[in-house]
Design brief:
By secondary structure, the chain is mainly α. The chain has one domain (33-292). 67% of the residues lie in helices and 0% in strands. The chain is built from 14 helices and no strands. The protein has helices at 11-17, 29-38, 40-53, 64-83, 93-115, 122-127, 134-160, 172-196, 200-213, 221-225, 232-240, 242-254, 256-259, 266-287. Helix 5 runs antiparallel to helix 9 (200-213), helix 8 (172-196) packs antiparallel against helix 12 and helix 8 packs parallel to helix 14 (266-287).
Length: 296
């Protein structure tokens, strides 16, 4: 059989007959997941290297991983706890605030990292062939590593204010895993959006600041909603806010005054639902544009 195309045979048909495929074409979902899993060691190494290099130019180095959320918590305590007297309305206000800041920072930084996953590594994307999802996944993993590094400081602060380890602290593990899956999904969705529209990276800090205020980081959403005549949709949106859900789960696990209260059963269901919906949905959304990354 001749290797040349007959007049009636297109070049595409000839390529398909000889097993040739389009360079950079999106693989099937199953093949893509397999390739991503085969790069798991690269993902881990990339995340760890980024975490190590993040503060390498600063004099205090990795100490800034702890100092940044702590300084934010100190600012919020002064503004909301002292000036606005929120500390008198919320039991165990310092553990409440610090836990909220640490958990919110995990989500916020994961999303911001996702917006730079492709554009910030464009040389790597254009030079090497690998599943592009490895980049937002690695950056989300980097933020999880940073949070785990910071959890020791959070534990010390909690114990300094009378919150000592007990069995409920183990609930922090599934809560963090669900939040990490949610964060990774959002990170991948933002990676695709920002790869197409880089200006999104400039807009996101404003969006995240608004989201933070609606997530009960500095005050209790239950106290805000109590006694207020708000539209039903607003109440449902605030109660179902995924960032607030994961913050509530961590406070329930770590703080006595919240552990002793009855946590509504829908909170764990919401946490699981958001993690699966956004985690899987964000991955599929990113995968569908696989062949577009690095072009142009």
């Amino acid at each position: 059989m001749s290797a040349t195309a007959s007049p009636a045979e297109s070049l595409g048909e000839l390529a398909a007959r000889h097993g040739l495929t389009v360079s950079g074409a999106r693989p099937s979902l199953r093949a893509y997941v397999g390739r991503l899993w085969s790069r798991r060691h690269f993902i881990t190494a990339f995340a760890t290297a980024r975490l190590t290099a993040q503060y390498s130019q600063a004099r205090l180095g990795q100490v800034w991983q702890l100092m940044t959320p702590l300084l934010n918590a100190a600012v919020y305590y002064f503004i909301f706890g002292v000036l606005l007297r929120t500390r008198h309305q919320v039991p165990d206000f310092v553990p409440f605030l610090v836990t909220g800041v640490f958990i919110w920072t995990f989500t916020s930084n994961s999303i911001l990292a996702g917006t730079r996953a492709i554009s910030g590594n464009i040389g790597l994307v254009r030079a090497l062939h690998f599943p592009r999802a490895a980049l937002p996944v690695a950056l989300a993993l980097q933020q999880l590593q940073q949070l785990l590094f910071s959890m020791g400081a959070l534990a010390v602060i909690l114990m300094a204010f009378g919150q000592f380890p007990r069995p409920s602290w183990l609930l922090a593990v599934p809560a963090l895993l669900l939040q990490a899956l949610f964060n990774t999904g959002v990170s991948m969705a933002m990676a695709r959006l920002a790869a197409r529209t880089p200006d999104i990276a400039q807009l996101m800090p404003f969006v995240l600041r608004t989201w933070m205020y609606a997530s009960g980081v500095m005050w209790s959403l239950q106290s805000v909603l109590k006694g207020r005549d708000l539209p039903e949709l607003v109440v449902l949106a605030l109660q179902g806010n995924p960032a607030a859900v994961y913050i509530d789960l961590m406070r329930f696990a770590l703080i006595d005054s919240y552990t002793s209260a009855q946590l509504p059963p829908h909170v764990w269901a919401l946490a699981l639902g958001w993690a699966v919906l956004i985690g899987v949905g964000g991955f599929l959304y990113f995968w569908k544009a696989e062949e577009q990354y690095g072009r142009g």
